[in-house]
What we know:
Layout: H1 2-15, H2 26-56
Amino acid sequence: MKVSIQLCLCVCMLMLAPPGFAQQSEPDLRQEIERLKDGQRALQQELQEIKKLLQSQQPPTRREGPNVSGRVFHLGDNPVKGEKTAMLTLMEFTDYQ
């Protein structure tokens, strides 16, 4: 008895379901899939064009500073950090004009 009541309720609910609840027809789905595929192709083409534009641009030119490799600089009484006997010294040149 309980099963038949539940079955009747399910059938009634399906009959009263809104029309938008029904599945789309197969031709509608195929058209929607084709539209999505066309959109995807258009996006891929745009990405390829952007990629070509980026690859065609010249990289920024790098400014080279003076070659100071192997030179010895005497710092005098200027403030320093670290050990004075270090094998490597980093110097920063700034201009506050």
